[in-house]
Amino acid sequence: MRIVGGRNAQFGVWPWQVSVRRSSFFGFSSTHRCGGALINEKWIATAGHCVDDLLTSQIRIRVGEYDFSSVQEPYPYSEKGVAKKVVHPKYNFFTYEYDLALVKLDSQLDFAPHIRPICLPGSDDLLIGENATVTGWGRLSDGGTLPSVLQEVTVPILSNDRCRNMFLRAGRHEFFPEIFMCAGFDDGGRDACQGDSGGPLQVKGKDGRYFLAGIISWGIGCAEANLPGVCTRISKFVPWILQVVT
């Protein structure tokens, strides 16, 4: 999905944001497909639907990226190949349940001011009412243009009951299991959009550090009234993530 109603992020503020890319047929270039979040020096979290249909050889991960149109950034980005991808075994292509994948880079990253991992959530708190920030290079409107600079937008986290009722008001009967997390406004206007999928929904913890509350998964349209964005709720997956990446 792409960010609607957001603004340009400042360089280096979201140092765990990555661009999950598909390499071209000959491998000389790659195109942005999804977002992702760096969780340690070797592993990226993204959405299952972002990589499920790709071979590991087709996936490239760009870290430290900010402006796709510029090579002259304060610090250069780094593009890595992938050694392994682990899509959650229960990922469902039709319902987007368990829409989570972990991707292992083919070489270890050197952290820098603009390349840092994000914390995993430390509790099962549902985070209802918390403000979260969504970041990505997705479209600026449904079917609209792609930005070159990383975008950010702040949206409140909703309860799943409220989310279900909002979708019903919009005439959509959807199922919201505990592993889903919704964020958005009744009147729309600010949301993720195509190209943001797989990227982080981040919340600032009481200790001042950001943690990965959600991975952007799906939505109906972009920023429409009563149709908030839906994420994979990461607190439900911390044991699985730790099992895979350690």
TrEMBL record:
Keyword Disulfide bond on entry: yes
Any Pfam family hit: Trypsin
Any one GO biological process: proteolysis
PROSITE patterns the UniProt entry points to: TRYPSIN_DOM, TRYPSIN_SER
Keywords annotated in UniProt: Disulfide bond, Hydrolase, Protease, Serine protease
Molecular-function GO term, any one: serine-type endopeptidase activity
Ranges of residues in domain Peptidase S1: 3-246
Source taxon at top rank: Eukaryota
PANTHER family xrefs: ACROSIN-RELATED (PTHR24252), HYALIN (PTHR24252:SF7)
Protein name as catalogued: Peptidase S1 domain-containing protein
Species this chain originates from: Apolygus lucorum (Small green plant bug)
